Amino acid sequence: MWPGTNIADDECGRLLVIECVYEGTLIRLINIYASNIDSERKIFFKDLKKWCTDNTIILGDFNVIQTEFDVSENNVFKGDVSRRELNLLLNEMNMCDVWRTANPKVRTYSRRQLSVIFLPGTRMLDSLIISNNLL
């Protein structure tokens, strides 16, 4: 049996929040599947803050390109209204993207696709965000 406690989930399947104890520390795990629509994703990231604690790990498909290094040179780093909201969440809750922190300028991707004109399109959409005090 799973030793964690289900705190919340949503009927759309975009959020699952559980808590568990690891080495005596209560940790909140949040698995997300953010919308691929910018405006919906912005609201989702804003609402996500209420589930965060000082010991939170958020993982899943964020569906947002966070930095210019998260998109291949064949793609454009476009404006995204949800990116600012996600960055606010990270700053206000003292969190970081673990992989990007360890690899600040590395270009590697979690999604690869071919476009109509056959240029490889790649983007980093999946992330692991963690409270800095858990590092």
Automatic annotation (TrEMBL):
SUPFAM superfamilies: DNase I-like. This is Endonuclease/exonuclease/phosphatase domain-containing protein. It comes from Sander lucioperca.
